[in-house]
Amino acid sequence: MYTREQASQLRQAFWTTFGQYISPLPSADGLKVNWLNYKTGLRHVYFRMQADNKKASIAIEITHPDPEIQQLFFEQFRELRGVLESTLEEEWEWELHTTDEHGKIISRISKELAPVNLFNRDDWPALISFFKPRIIALDEFWSGAQYSFDALR
Q: How many domains is the chain built from?
């Protein structure tokens, strides 16, 4: 078991390592991008990567406070499901109106990898191999799909 400080240092070390590994890659549009804090340019829509001592996940999270508007965003993603899954080359889990770790209602489209442990450096290659192609594929998808959300801005 790790102290809170050790866990924080390991978490920071992993994300720094991953960030250094992926930062030279340009976006699908050829631009420099902060992969760890990916900006969709759409308020309440986030690409999130998370890992802990049991699993890792990458997700599109829709956090609009109005559940009906959140559902509109989710339905727009559902319209693009074929394009998304073709770009990702796999199916993801779709959850309308679930709760996050803070009890807030969100909608999520995600993929998990388990079992992996962020605090075990031996698992870092598996984590990097999980996150890298998926965040790149999300960027490729978003490069074209973002315009489908213009009416919801």
A: 1
